[in-house]
Design brief:
CATH topology: Peroxisomal Thiolase, Chain A, domain 1
Mean pLDDT: 93
Strand content: 15-25%
Distance between the termini: 11 Å
Shape: globular
Number of domains: 1
Order of helices and strands: EHEEHEHHHEHEHEHEHEHEHHEEEEE
Low-confidence stretches: none
């Protein structure tokens, strides 16, 4: 349809690749991004590894780690969309970046400081520069555009939420181009927090495995360029995929645990399908939130059984990328786009004994070449945030 919302640009910085080609190659090869943590001293901690990015960031970009990663991913996406450094002349541009932690340096670099270093001139400057909105504004400054720029705090569902809101803005005609994504830098606050919650894996992240023992904290950024299909066609842009629908829900069960019946995620899936004008039978693949934690995977499997067609293939790419917080949903949406383009499904690497009962088809061991027309991308987060996005082939 002429006014479909389509993806014309994509940029990825991940622990398994800092461009779409290497990201896809490593997903197919099953190469994990897990490595020893070097930015903090873990000698007195019970966990010592995470999924971090080794490639250097552009030191000329102002701001913290999350802003740096978001800007670099946005540059990739803008180049991929062939929009040039200033985007389209006179275009109305909206920027929405999902994040869990935001910028944390202003807290972390003062944890061992003397009292007189708190709220000194330099620390005050860091606090102001790291306030909510700073990541999207960093992207906005780098693009050289004026308009709506917002950081969206939605815990680990933030990236999918950003895509959902951006799609709605484009579809409603509120903007001509939406730059939407998610970004989080490696944070000792998140690393130690998940460790204290006993949610971190010891050696491997094994989503949906009977012997799963947790996740790996990760970092990364992924950014999409969204526009109306008619505009993309008018300028001869390549369409990578279509965002057919999306939805967000919330639940108030517990600050860190999902509802035992998966109420919020169930409603997000059903609403996203309705928003896309689709049924469960239309979905060829599900990229699950799949953290590898005991409760999340069990509840998500129950939700998929309830909401989707029996035998639908599903997997979790967090087995390789770790959990990049606010970037998780969009990084997994990028994986969906690439699966649609390559007509191949990525398995849950490291999955040996799928949990039971499960009426779905847990992908494992190898890439599956098959017909893929529509993907469902699920995200869930602390605080009861949930979001689902439906992507279809170009």
């Amino acid at each position: 349809m002429a006014d479909d919302v389509v993806i014309t640009g994509l940029g990825v910085l991940s622990p398994i690749g800092c461009d779409t080609a290497s990201f896809w190659d490593n997903l197919c090869a099953g190469r994990s991004g897990v490595k020893p943590v070097t930015s903090i001293d873990t000698s007195k901690l019970i966990r010592h590894t995470a999924c971090t990015i080794s490639d250097p960031v552009d030191a000329s970009i102002p701001g913290g780690r999350a802003s740096n990663l978001a800007v670099m991913a946005a540059r990739q996406a803008i180049g991929d969309a062939n929009l040039g450094p200033k985007l389209l002349p006179d275009a109305r541009v909206s920027i929405t970046i999902g994040t869990t932690m935001g910028e944390t340096e202003f807290i972390e670099n003062r944890l061992d400081a003397d009292a007189d270093q708190w709220l000194d001139q330099e620390h005050t400057r860091r606090i102001v520069s790291g306030q909510p909105g700073c990541i999207a504004r960093a992207v906005q400054r780098d693009c050289g555009v004026i308009g709506h720029a917002t950081d969206l705090y939605g815990a680990c569902a933030a990236g999918n939420m950003a895509l959902t809101l951006a799609r709605q803005s484009v579809a409603n005609g509120d903007c001509d181009i939406a730059i939407a994504g998610g970004s989080d830098g490696f944070s000792s606050l998140a690393f130690i927090g998940f460790m204290r919650l006993r949610l971190m894996a010891a050696e491997e992240c094994r989503p949906f495995d009977k012997n799963r023992d947790g996740l790996f904290v990760a970092e990364g950024a992924t950014v999409f360029i969204l526009e109306r299909a008619s505009q993309a066609a008018a300028r001869g842009a390549r369409v990578r995929a279509r965002i057919a629908g999306g939805a967000m829900t919330s639940e108030s069960y517990h600050p860190t645990r999902p509802d035992p019946e998966g109420d919020g995620l169930s409603r997000a899936i059903n609403a996203a399908l309705a928003n896309a004008g689709m049924t469960p039978a239309d979905i060829d693949y599900v990229n699950a939130h799949g953290t590898g934690t005991p409760q999340n995977d069990m509840i998500e499997a129950k939700v998929m059984d309830k909401c989707l067609k029996p035998g639908t293939p599903f997997s979790s790419t967090k087995a390789l990328t770790g959990h990049p917080m606010g970037a998780a949903g969009v990084m997994e949406a990028a994986a969906c786009v690439l699966m649609l383009e390559h007509q191949a499904l990525i398995p849950t690497w490291h999955l040996q004994e799928p949990l039971e009962p499960c009426g779905m088809d847990p992908l494992r061991d190898a890439v599956r070449e098959t017909s893929v027309r529509a993907c469902l991308n699920n995200s869930a987060g602390f605080g009861g945030y949930n979001s689902s996005v439906v992507l279809t082939a170009a």
